[in-house]
Write a structure and sequence with these properties.
The protein is mainly alpha-helical. Helix content is about 65%, strand content about 0%. It contains 6 helices and no strands. About 30% of the residues are buried.
C-alpha cells in the first residue's frame, strides 16, 4: 500500500495525476509500486530479495482490492463501467510489470488498460 501511494507521488511529480482516466491512473500507481519494490531489493534498501511467498502475498493483496472483487463482495454483482481502480487481474498485471521490468517507462497508462 505504501509503495502504491509512492506511485501516486511519482505521478504527481511527473504531472501524470491529471491525465484523466482514474483506472489508468491507479494501474500506473500499481506499476510504479512494483518498480519501487524491484529497486528496493536491487539497491539494498530492502535487505533481502522478496521470497516467492512474499511476492505472492503482495499479488494477492493487489487482487483483493480490484474493483471486481470489491463490487462482488459488497453488491453481489460486478459493474465494469463503474470501476475506479481496475480489475483484480489488471492490478496484479500492473504490479507484476513494474516488478519484473524495474522500468518506470514500462508503466505508461495507455499500456496498462
Amino acid at each position: 500500500m505504501i509503495a502504491h501511494e509512492y506511485g501516486h507521488h511519482t505521478q504527481d511529480l511527473l504531472g501524470a495525476l491529471s491525465e484523466g482516466n482514474s483506472v489508468a491512473t491507479e494501474l500506473q500507481a500499481d506499476c510504479y509500486a512494483g518498480v519501487w519494490a524491484k529497486h528496493a531489493v536491487d539497491t539494498g534498501f530492502y535487505e533481502k530479495p522478496f521470497t516467492t511467498s512474499e511476492f505472492a502475498e503482495a499479488l494477492d493483496a493487489a487482487a483483493a482490492v480490484g474493483d471486481d472483487r470489491i463490487q462482488q463482495r459488497t453488491q453481489g454483482r460486478i459493474d465494469p463501467e463503474s470501476f475506479t481502480h481496475g480489475s483484480s487481474e489488471q492490478r496484479v498485471n500492473a504490479l507484476n510489470r513494474g516488478y519484473k521490468t524495474g522500468d518506470p517507462a514500462k508503466c505508461a497508462q495507455s499500456d496498462l488498460l
